[in-house]
Design a protein that fits this description.
The chain is mainly α. Strand 2 and strand 3 form a beta hairpin. The N and C termini lie far apart (about 80 Å).
Length: about 160
């Protein structure tokens, strides 16, 4: 395995976004290192990736992607989900438009994307929902409920 060094400089340099990208004690960077089997070194907004050339390039793309999303804090779950999407090659795919309060919400799988594209047209917040039918009670259960109710009222 040939070890190459890939360098990346993020611009514009924003310390808050860098802190959100790296996470507490650089745990987000360690997660990216483990996912791509590379070593990541950082000084300010400059990153160095050591390892296989292809993997180092992919990890640099992942860092750029997460830096663009780092306006808010990135949790470890956000990093892991983004890495799964990146390794499956579905990172920048546009799915059906979902009308929710969260602007960054999108379907995670192809099945969800296909069902949400069909339901996005047919459902609306004011759609009527039929209540579930009531479960019938057996006559024996009804009698025992009346017996326990009359028994408990006798003790009060």
């Amino acid at each position: 395995m040939k070890t190459d060094i890939v360098e990346l400089r993020l611009a514009p340099e924003d310390n808050r976004r860098l802190a959100n990208l790296c996470g507490p004690l650089d745990e987000n960077l360690r997660q990216i290192e483990a996912a791509f089997d590379v070593t990541i070194g950082r000084r300010g907004s400059s990153f160095r990736f050591g390892g296989d050339a292809a993997q180092a390039e992919k990890s640099a793309q992942a860092i750029e992607h997460f830096y663009n999303r780092a306006h808010d804090e990135l949790s470890l779950d956000d990093i892991q989900l983004g890495l799964v999407e990146l390794t499956r090659g579905r990172l920048d795919e546009e799915g059906p438009a979902l009308r929710t309060r969260r602007a960054d919400l999108r379907a995670r799988t192809r099945v969800r994307a296909s069902t949400s594209s069909r339901s996005a047209v047919t459902t609306s917040p004011s759609a009527s929902v039929r209540p579930a039918p009531a479960k019938p009670i057996s006559p024996w259960r009804a009698r025992s409920m009346r017996w326990s109710a009359s028994r408990s009222s006798a003790w009060c």
